[in-house]
Amino acid sequence: MTSTRVRRPAFWIALLTALTALAACTSAARPDEAERTGPARAVMAALRTVERSTERAESARVRSTTTIGSTLSMKADGTLAWTDDLTGLLTITYTGGTTAEAMRRLGTTSMEARYLPDAYYARIGEAFSAKTDGKHWIKYAYDDLDELAGSSGADLAAQMRGTAPHTSVKRLLSSTDVRKVGAEAVAGEPTTHYSGTVRAEGGTTEQTVDIWVNGRNLLVKKVERGRTATGRLTQTAYYSDYGIEARVEKPPAGDTADLKELLSGSAGR
User: Average pLDDT for residues 93-116, to the nearest whole number?
Assistant: First the structure.
């Protein structure tokens, strides 16, 4: 029993990392650097307009792909809303890497994910539900993540709350070298391309952020590139249908297992 309890936390935290990979590259950048050097004022003014317009849209459809070295390749498709707290309904499919192999052994490579103000919920397959007393949802309460996973848990909580599209624009506003690349077409739509590098809070690793903005000052494409402890990270996201209805319901309590209980050994025996 002791060895099982030792392995269980690592297993559930590894799954948590996989499930939240959509937010893997949304760490906050340091805001004071742009004030010291500052890119062109016209670029900063344009980005502030994009940030406001995208934030006011309050919801959008999103399609994304994420790759982290040989560990993970995944795609996500669904809707996000950010009126107050972030909410969202996404289908996540693991397409490659060691994470996909592990999920395949558990009986599924695709699952539904729900973002709600209090927690992140993931629907698991029938084979995997045997580890959770037959329950089909796992709840990752944001308030528990710091306690359960240390500083990495706190980072994940912040990242999950920061996946709205205007967050990428906000990151570029902190860049010291952000620039207007020029006019380009995205899916046949005229856009303006901006690019810059950002640095994670308290870190030294830089990431490149590229965004494409349409004529309504709305973000329609984003690409983020950088390095993580497990390899090179690349994430590409497309945003459309701004203002779409994006209602999300909490899964049934009786069909939901809490991560904190799973880690304590009270479930998933």
Answer: 83
In Å, how far from its chain's centre is CA 169? Answer: 15
Q: Find where tokens 């309050």 sit.
A: 58
**Tokens found for residue 36:** 């010291």
Q: Which helix (H) or strand (E) holds 140?
A: strand 137-141
What is the helix (H) or strand (E) element at residue 100, kind and residue range?
helix 97-105
pTM for this predicted structure: 0.82
Structure confidence by residue, pLDDT tens digits, 223-269:
999 887 778 889 999 999 999 998 899 999 999 999 888 777 644 44
Distance in angstroms (rounded) separating the CA atoms of residues 237 and 8:
33
Amino acid symbol at 174: S
| Cα torsion angle, 197, 20, 153, 15, sign | negative
Spatial separation of the C-alpha atoms in residues 27 and 153, rounded to whole Å? 13
pLDDT tens digits for range 7-21: 445 455 556 655 555
Residue 211 β-bridge partners: 194, 222
